[in-house]
Amino acid sequence: xxxxxxxxxxxxxxxxxxxxxxxxxxxxxxxxxxxxxxxxxxxxxxxxxxxxxxxxxxxxxxxxxxxxxxxxxxxxxxxxxxxxxxxxxxxxxxxxxxxxxxxxxxxxxxxxxxxxxxxxxxxxxxxxxxxxxxxxxxxxxxxxxxxxxxxxxxxxxxxxxxxxxxxxxxxxxxxxxxxxxxxxxxxxxxxxxxxxxxxxxxxxxxxxxxxxxxxxxxxxxxxxxxxxxxxxxxxxxxxxxxxxxxxxxxxxxxxxxxxxxxxxxxxxxxxxxxxxxxxxxxxxxxxxxxxxxxxxxxxxxxxxxxxxxxxxxxxxxxxxxxxxxxxxxxxxxxxxxxxxxxxxxxxxxxxxxxxxxxxxxxxxxxxxxxxxxxxxxxxxxxxxxxxxxx
Length: 390
Ligand SMILES: [Zn+2]
Ligand SMILES: [Zn+2]
Prior knowledge:
The chain has helices at about 1-10, 15-25, 35-45, 95-110, 130-135, 190-200, 240-260, 280-295, 310-320, 340-345, 345-370, 370-385; strands at about 50, 60-65, 70-80, 115-125, 145-155, 155-160, 165, 170-175, 175-180, 210-220, 225, 230-240, 265-270, 300, 320-325. By secondary structure, the chain is α/β, with parallel strands linked by helices.
């Protein structure tokens, strides 16, 4: 079956690379990915998938399914296809979408009577907006048993984690007054400075790995006017979503207290929370074995490398999930750069689409055909991930 999958992915080469280059050429940011969804829908429908979009009230989310022939598990390949503002597909999400479509189509053709169901879940707004956070909350993964995706990178990796993060905007509303009559005003900047100082005090009580960075985005209009309005923007990070929620409680209490100090009013705006990532290692090792079969390697992610945040974390809290990496550039190239964007449509980036589609389809086939593998993956999830669900 593995060699059959490899052969079919090769036959799909021009269609998959066409998809990858089309998405790349027309970058669309969070929740605006209409053309990217249309390209994927067209290809998936052409190969017999039923595509439902919008999904969960998200106009650029979709769910593609292939008619089920026999009972069995449901495996979802996850597609991302949002670009970054100003720098286009500098995270290479065109490759993620093409891998997901390629793996799903190849598997649907390789097996006449698949014991289970293949899905592609198209998830918008990974870079900002948390499309998968919303999809998880709205039930898109409720009947899914396993989720798989590939992200382009600078190394072939499996088992890489990720930390929880969110954005918080804080505003203080005071009252303007001429600087020579400060008593008539309410100084929103005093509250803001107090707020930063309070957070600096509170952060000493936080467990290891909790990081809060922030900037003042509006500190007043003129030095001879008591500022009636100030605002700041923060990114709190934590090893876990549970830890992050405790930081948010501190941030809220500190804002209340800083407002009370001067008599200002305050508001806080919380973005969606990107949860920490729990990579399924049982499935990751099988992915690695399949990469080896393809003449590639994949190494276990080095825990010392600093971790970023992605909304795949929220999926990994719900079900056994892998989010592995395939190299499209050497490690002097950082993600979110012009060079990484070029790499995402380079010959090496194109090869990564095919390697990724093969490796994911092979791993999914193993899941469908090997009940012991499924049981082990689920047991790992129950033991290591369930305690982190809140
Ligand atoms: Zn990115
Ligand atoms: Zn990305």
